[in-house]
């Protein structure tokens, strides 16, 4: 082998990663679907190894954990599933504008709790003093305003003092939790919960207690998609997210965009809190949101900050959580099992994005003497 050939072989890497041109959309989705199927296959194998169940029995139990047995309360469980999807989707919609702007809002949990607290106070204090339609309007305004203010505080500090928004919004969650804990202690007579309140509850469509919430979130999804995709504000959010210097160069007021976007983000979180408190639980405690504010971050990223794709991601995450919880209950597994299942699927979904965006090429062996 010549010296030149040895030199080429010596410097050429074994693996070469190159950025792909934009892949055809249907090929990209085929890869994503394949990743989810492979992840579910791995979940099935793992479940069989950890339990006494059969391979197909595992999936049957998971399905029953979400939708129940056909003809035996399945309709009620389906609506409960859609309600859980709606709340998670609402929180995901809330954090998405901030994420597109590269403002890492990790405070959806606290913003939703404060919005729910505003609803609870209105239901308690004004429930018998205002006509029902007026009371609903007051609850909506109070919840939106409370969530917006809770989002505004870290936005002002970020815009004017360049504070770390991740830490700031995380700390705001703890403050909100303690405020709720104090309020529940006072109103609950020392208990850790408040008895359901009969006044100020959101409208119920027929006998379905979840349908109103689902319709509200469906409307919010469409509005958020239009706002981010077609409005001037949505364009400014994208530009600020790409480069604040570029945004300033073309005349965009970056501080104004940061504050405005976090007002919207907090306001939508406030709506989520209202739907939980006035629409579903009719009460409040520190676990009302149940950690979904953090799960929403993951859903927003998995949905590529596209509200329509986030619908599918919310459905998938709730299905996995509920189904895995049923498997854990059936076979007496640790409660962390559902987190493991969700983590496996997310790992596959995130990993497949790498192969959609990049191609991996291995060094080919060259014939001796060829350069």
Secondary structure: elements and pairs:
Layout: H1 3-11, E1 15-19, H2 25-50, H3 55-67, H4 74-100, H5 108-126, H6 132-161, H7 165-187, H8 211-230, H9 232-242, H10 244-249, H11 254-281, H12 292-302, H13 307-330, H14 337-357, E2 358-362
Antiparallel strand pairs: 1-2
Description:
The chain has 14 helices and two strands; from the N terminus they run H-E-H-H-H-H-H-H-H-H-H-H-H-H-H-E. Helix 6 runs antiparallel to helix 11. It is globular.
In short, what is this structure?
The protein is an all-alpha fold and 371 residues long. It has helices at residues 3-11, 25-50, 55-67, 74-100, 108-126, 132-161, 165-187, 211-230, 232-242, 244-249, 254-281, 292-302, 307-330, 337-357; strands spanning 15-19, 358-362. The chain has a domain at 79-301.
């Amino acid at each position: 082998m010549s010296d030149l050939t040895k030199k080429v072989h010596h410097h050429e890497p074994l693996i070469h990663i190159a950025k792909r041109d934009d892949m055809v959309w249907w090929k990209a989705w085929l890869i994503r679907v394949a990743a989810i199927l492979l992840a579910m296959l791995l979940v099935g194998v793992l479940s069989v190894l950890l339990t006494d169940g059969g391979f197909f029995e595992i999936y049957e139990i998971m399905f029953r954990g979400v939708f129940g047995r056909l003809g035996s309360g399945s309709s009620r469980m389906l609506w409960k599933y859609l309600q859980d999807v709606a709340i998670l989707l609402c929180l995901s919609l809330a954090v998405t504008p901030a994420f597109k702007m590269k403002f890492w809002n990790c405070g959806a949990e606290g913003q939703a709790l404060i919005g729910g607290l505003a609803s609870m106070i209105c239901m308690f204090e004004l429930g018998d003093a205002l006509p029902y339609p007026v009371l609903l309007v007051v609850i909506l305004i109070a919840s939106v305003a409370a969530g917006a203010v809770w989002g505004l505080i870290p936005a002002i500090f970020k815009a004017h003092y360049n504070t770390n928004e991740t830490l700031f919004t995380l700390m705001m969650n703890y403050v909100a939790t303690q405020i709720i804990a104090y309020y529940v202690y006072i109103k609950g007579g020392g208990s850790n919960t408040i008895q359901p309140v009969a006044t100020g509850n959101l409208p119920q469509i027929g006998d379905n207690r979840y349908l109103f919430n689902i319709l509200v979130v469906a409307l919010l999804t469409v509005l958020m998609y239009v706002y981010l995709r077609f409005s001037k504000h949505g364009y400014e959010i994208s530009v600020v997210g790409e480069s604040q210097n570029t945004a300033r160069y073309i005349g965009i007021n970056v501080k104004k965009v940061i504050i405005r976007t976090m007002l919207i983000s907090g306001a939508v979180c406030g709506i989520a809190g209202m739907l939980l408190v006035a629409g579903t639980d009719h009460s409040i405690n520190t676990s009302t949101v149940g950690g979904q504010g953090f799960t929403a971050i993951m859903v927003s990223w998995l949905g590529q900050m596209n509200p329509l794709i986030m619908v599918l991601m919310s459905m998938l995450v709730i299905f996995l959580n509920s189904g895995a919880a049923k498997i854990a209950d059936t076979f007496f597994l640790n409660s962390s099992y559902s987190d493991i299942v969700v983590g496996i699927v997310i790992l596959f979904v995130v990993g497949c994005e790498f192969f959609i965006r990049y191609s991996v090429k291995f060094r080919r062996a060259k014939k001796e003497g060829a350069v």
